[in-house]
Design a protein that fits this description.
Layout: H1 26-36, H2 43-56, H3 69-78, H4 84-94, H5 101-116, H6 122-140, H7 148-151, H8 159-170, H9 179-187, H10 196-206, H11 209-225
Helix pairs in contact: 3-8, 5-6, 9-11
């Protein structure tokens, strides 16, 4: 028999982990962000915002060059993921030779690609423009329909493009929403929205009738040149005293 005593058992309990600062609950973060988000402006303030934008630019215009509803449709479709300046350079030589759906079909997809090669996704855009031109010729007699719902069925044409076309070409008071308008809407805020479609529906319901026709241009130009994404130029904003954005850059 061995005279060795059995080894003393060590404590099997795991060592306690050092205490760390408890994480902030997700709900608390959400509440903090919600508290920081201002409520949308009231109707009287919205009217004053658009009154000032109108006073600063009574007849706003888009920055894409076009000659008729069809060339406008093509220009807006080409502007996806591209600048207006870049599109205008590409269409300067294109529109004199293809200013109708039939003339665009006569030019052909390869000919169109040569004109728009400097634009992002030019292969896909050329394919869509030709396919849309074919439908316009075959189903609409070469005319651009004054209908967002119909235009949205054309290849390469979404809600934004369709809304821009009927607004500018036919005077339909639609508010097409791009990244600039989405940003301005939620910064002022005119409304608190999550998607471009939700933003468009909110703006078309909220903006007073007398300002709705040009609202698209006022908001997009304001977002492009003053209420910029990274650093809004609040010090020269005509509505900075009405804006509820918490991170203004006024000196």
């Amino acid at each position: 028999m061995s005279d060795l005593k059995p080894a003393r058992r060590r404590d099997s309990k795991p060592r306690a982990k050092p205490r760390t600062k408890p994480a902030v609950p997700a709900k608390a973060v959400g509440r903090a962000l919600k508290a920081r988000t201002p409520k949308p402006v009231d109707r009287a303030t919205m009217v004053e915002i658009f009154r000032r934008l109108h006073a600063a630019n009574p007849e706003p215009r888009g920055e894409l060059d076009y000659t008729n509803p069809y060339t406008l449709l093509v220009a807006v479709a080409l502007s996806a993921q591209a600048t207006d300046v870049g599109v205008n350079k590409a269409t300067k030589a294109l529109f004199p030779v293809a200013d109708t759906p039939q003339r665009m079909l006569d030019l052909g997809e390869e000919g169109l690609r040569e004109h728009i090669r400097t634009l992002n996704f030019f292969n896909t855009k050329a394919k869509n423009v030709i396919a849309a031109a074919r439908r316009l010729v075959e189903e609409f007699g070469g005319e651009v329909p004054n209908s967002v719902e119909i235009l949205e069925t054309l290849p390469g044409v979404g809600r934004k493009t369709a809304s821009v076309v009927v607004n500018i070409a036919f005077g339909d008071p639609r508010v097409a929403v791009d990244t600039h308008i989405f940003r301005v809407t939620n910064r002022l805020p005119l409304a608190i929205t999550r998607t471009p479609l939700e933003t468009q529906e909110a703006l078309e319901a909220l903006i007073p009738d007398e300002f709705r026709l040009h609202a698209h241009h006022w908001l997009i130009l304001h977002g492009r040149y003053i209420c910029k994404a990274r650093r809004p130029e609040c010090w020269r904003c005509p509505v900075n005293d009405l804006c509820r954005y918490p991170d203004k850059t006024i000196p």
